Amino acid sequence: MTALLELRNLKTHFKRDKIDIPAVDGVDLTINKGETVALVGESGSGKSITSLSIMRLIPSPPGKIVDGAILFNGNDLVNLTEDDMCKIRGNDISMIFQEPMTSLNPVLTVGEQIIEVLMYHQKLSRAASINKAVEMLEMVGFSRAKALINEYPHRLSGGMRQRVMIAIAMSCNPKLLIADEPTTALDVTIQAQILDLMKELSVKYDTSILIITHDLGVVSEVADKVVVMYCGQVVEEALVDDLFDEPLHPYTIGLMGSIPSLEGETDRLQSIEGTVPPPEHFPIGCRFAPRCPHAFDRCRAEAPKLVEVAGRRKVRCFLHSDKEATV
Ligand SMILES: Nc1ncnc2c1ncn2[C@@H]1O[C@H](COP(=O)(O)OP(=O)(O)O)[C@@H](O)[C@H]1O
Ligand code: SF4
Ligand SMILES: [Mg+2]
């Protein structure tokens, strides 16, 4: 498999009152061509800052990529000029967000917003852009695409708006689509439809997807690989089947316990006790130790490294790295 995107030891920090805030603190992550990777973790883990770093959209100051590489087709995006980065955004890498209403312009019709992107990025004529816009809206499942062109976003439901965002994001045939909590604001049935659509498009157009979510339940159907993030670091990485068969990291096991059952019996929901500490207060030693049911003395003194286990997955936990080291 060929790597499309490779994050190597990515560190994105913020400065507040001269304090260094290590929001993303040494992330390694690979997305192969055509692969769907899920980046999972509770709110505050550093998922969005990771994705905004890839897009080079970190507000600076106070934020800065302070170390590491973001290799896209082998080129390091960290060193690109803003002009070069502009060409990559929207052409090679597209992004969709949780709440499409904030990304869609309320005073422009749906058609205008897609046409604008096509004329700017693909340099299509207006007439060609209109045809292509209709085609894109049909592709994301709208049967009356021609009429929809003249509608304003507020007339659409949340699920329809997210479909429009996907149509816009896919209109330049990107190699990578980053979707940051794309279904969090939607109800469960619509969530499933949007995820199915993304999967279908990824297979059809050989687009790689980085799907970001705090809900592990969302990823089992769509992702090939899952990367679990906690306190600015990757704590586990595995193929989706391996992860669901046997989660290794105590944090992943905790996240699994928080997946609501299909029947929606929320009373069986077990959340992990405590909350994600803010980056300025990351514990020394294992960052999960204060919340981990298996923590022992070493965990509070020494930071575990991300190590490969079973030849095809990675985990950052002494319970597994020690076992591996003694094999
Ligand atoms: N503009 C900012 N200034 C300072 N700290 C920030 C800023 N944006 C994010 N952070 C820090 O980065 C952490 C990770 O944020 P984020 O990537 O948005 O988490 P997630 O998407 O996983 O919920 C936050 O908890 C916050 O402490
Ligand atoms: S290293 Fe220790 S504290 Fe950290 S996850 Fe593993 S057992 Fe828990
Ligand atoms: Mg986020």
From TrEMBL:
Q: Does the keyword Cell membrane apply?
A: yes
What is a GO molecular function of this protein?
Answer: ATP binding
- Keyword Endoplasmic reticulum among record annotations: no
Ranges for domain ABC transporter = 5-256
The domain of life for this entry's organism is Bacteria
Note the topology in the membrane. Answer: Peripheral membrane protein
Q: Which InterPro entries match?
A: AAA+_ATPase, ABC_Ni/Peptide_Import, ABC_transporter-like_ATP-bd, ABC_transporter-like_CS, Oligopep_ABC_C, P-loop_NTPase
Keyword tags: ATP-binding, Cell membrane, Membrane, Nucleotide-binding, Transport
Q: Where in the cell is it found?
A: Cell membrane
| Signal peptide bounds | none
Task: Give the record's family classification.
Answer: Belongs to the ABC transporter superfamily.
Identify this protein by name: Peptide/nickel transport system ATP-binding protein
User: Native species of this protein?
Assistant: Cytobacillus purgationiresistens
Lineage at the top is: Bacteria, Bacillati, Bacillota, Bacilli, Bacillales
